[in-house]
Amino acid sequence: MSLRLQSFKEYQEAQRTAKNDPDGFWDGIASQFQWIKPHHQTRSGSLQGGDLKWFVGGRLNITVNALDRHAIERGNQSAIIWEPNDPNHLGQTLSYKELYERVCDMGAALRASGVQKGDRVILYMPMTPELAVSVLACARIGAIHSVVFAGFSAQALADRIQDAGATVVITANEGRRGLKIVPLKSTVDEALEHCPTVQLVIVQRVTDSSCAMQVTRDVWFSEFLNRGTGLPCPAEPMDAEDPLFILYTSGSTGKPKGVVHTHGGYMVYTAYSFANVFQYERGDVYWCTADIGWITGHSYIIYGPLLNGATTMMFEGIPTYPGPDRFWAICAKHKVNQFYTAPTAIRALMCHGEAPVQAHDLSTLKVLGTVGEPINEEAWHWYHDIVGQQKCPIVDTWWQTETGGIMLSGLGSLSPQKPAHAGLPLPGIDPVLLNPDGTELQGDDVEGLLCISAPWPSIIRTTYGDHERCLNTYFRPYPGYYFTGDGARRDADGLIRVIGRVDDVINVSGHRFGTAEIESAINEASIAVESAVVGFDHPIKGQAIHAFVISESALDEAQKQVAIGDVLEAVEKGIGKIAKPARVQFVQGLPKTRSGKIMRRILRKIASGEFDQFGDTSTLLDPSVVDSIKIDAQTTWFTAP
Ligand code: WT7
Asked: In whole angstroms, what is the distance from residue 272 CA to residue 242 CA?
C-alpha cells in the first residue's frame, strides 16, 4: 500500500488531481484497501444537502483492513505496545497476529452473547489493550461502538447510554491514573439505574480491588471470553455507509451530540491522513498520547495506524507520573519515532524546565505533532527546540470529531512550516474563509469563518437520532459549505492559523464543552437560579471556565464558600471533574437582551479582565446589570486552587 506522498512536489500534484478529478483521486486511495465488493459510485449527495455518502455500494469490514491483512503479511510485527501507568509494572506488546486473535476471541464472545450488527456497545474503560481489543471486536461484528471518556460522571454516561440506546457496556473495576484510582464500575452501576436497555456489563479486572457484580448482568472480561472459545469470528460484511461508531461531542446548544462515522469513508480517510501527516515508515514506533475516549484516540491510536500496519503505542497513565519526565522516558524506552500530543500537555511540561527532557535520549524522534487547540508560539518553540532538538518538523494538526481525520497540517517535513500555524490542507481538502454574510474571502492575509467547500470521505454523516440537528449545526449555516465553528486566518503566504471557536463552545485543555451543558449542570445546584459560563485565557489549559451564577438569595462570605462548593459539585455530578469552572462568581443578574438572550460577549470581556468598551449594549434589557457584575468581578470571584 502506498498512500504516502514523499515530496512537496508530489503533494502539489496530489492537490491538483484532487481538485480536477476528486472522484478519481479518492478512488485511487480507496482501491488500496480490501473490499468485499467494490463501490459503483464514489460519492453521492452534497454539502448543500448534508446527505453525503461515500463509496456507494461498496462492502467491507474495516478490521479486515486493519488486522487480517497485516496478520497474514507481517504477523509477528508489533501492532500495539502498551505502556502501563506504573513503570515498574509489566507492559504488553501485541503482534498483529496476537491482536487479530484477541479481537476475534472478543468478537466471537460478543456474538455468542447475542450482540448483533447495528447494536450499540458503550465502552467506559481505562487505557488498556482490552479497550483497543473491544473497539475492534465491535467493528468486526458490525456492532456500533461508542467510547465514553472514563472521566465523565455517571449522569453524563447515562445520558450517552440512553441516547445511543445501548444494550452492552464494557468497563473495568477501576482505572489507574498516576496515584489516583478511578472507580469505573461503581460509576457504571450508578448510571445503569437509569438505563434499562443495558442487559450485559463486561468488567475488566484492572486492579485487585473487588467490586459489586450483579450475577444476571455483570461478567468479568476474562470469563466472558470463554463464551467465544473455539468459535471462528468472520468479519461482518458491512456496507460502506454502515455506522462504525458514535462519539459524543459538545456543541453550543443542548446536550452532547452523537457524531456518526461509517466503515468505508472513515477507513479511507484515517489511513490516508495518518500515512501522510506522520510520514510513517515501516518499522517506526508511533505514539499518540490522547485517550481513546476522544476522536484523536479513535483515528490516530487505533484505526489510522493499524490500517497502515504501523506499531502504535498506548499509554495508561499521565504525563507527570511518577515524574515530569515520563513522556520522554517512554519515548526513549520504546525508541519512539513519531510523537503526537496536545498543546496543554506541552505547556504543563514546559513548567518543569528542560532537565526532564534532557535526561533522556530522544534521538529517534522524527516528527512531532500537536492537536486539540491552538498552540501558542512559546510552546511551539519549546517543543521544536527542546524536545525536537530543532531536528523534527512540527505538524500542527487541525481537525474535529466531526471531520473524522486531520484536515489542515504539515506532512512531516515536506511542507512549509510556521510556528502556531496548521498551514496547508491535505490534498482533497478545500478550506475557505467566509465573511459572516457567507461570501468567500479571497486572497491572503485575511481572517474569517473556517468552512470546507468540498466533501471528503470521513465527514460526519449524522448526529445520532437527530439528523435535523446535524443539518442545522454544520450544513445549513452557510449552504454549500461544511461549517466548522472555528475562526481562522490565512497569512500572506497562504498558511492557515486556526484561532479558536466562534460559537459557544469552550476548549479546556483540548476538551470541548458547550456553555449550555455546563450551565444546565450548574443549575441543578439548589443554590443556583440561573447561570452563564464563558471561557477565559489560561496559561496551561488554553481556556478555563468562568461561571456567573445568580443565587437564590444574597450570600455572605461564609455562605458563598459553601455555595461555590455546591456549584462545583453540580458540574462534577452532571458532566465530570474535567468540566469544573476555575472561577465562580455570584451575581444579581445576567446581561440579557430584550429577547432573553445572554450577551456572552460582555461576560467574556469581564472574565478576561476588561472592564470597559463593551460595544453596543443598547439592546440590553437592564444595562445596569453590567456595572454590578463588573464591581463584583474585581473583588469577589472564586479561583480554584
Ligand atoms: C476543535 C475540535 C481533533 C482532535 C481533538 C479535538 C480545536 C483542534 C486544533 C489545532 C487550533 C484546534 C478547534 C476544533 N482544534 N485542533 N491544531 N489548532 N485549534 O477534537 O473535541 O472535536 O475539537 O478543537 O477549535 O474545532 P474536538
From this structure: 20
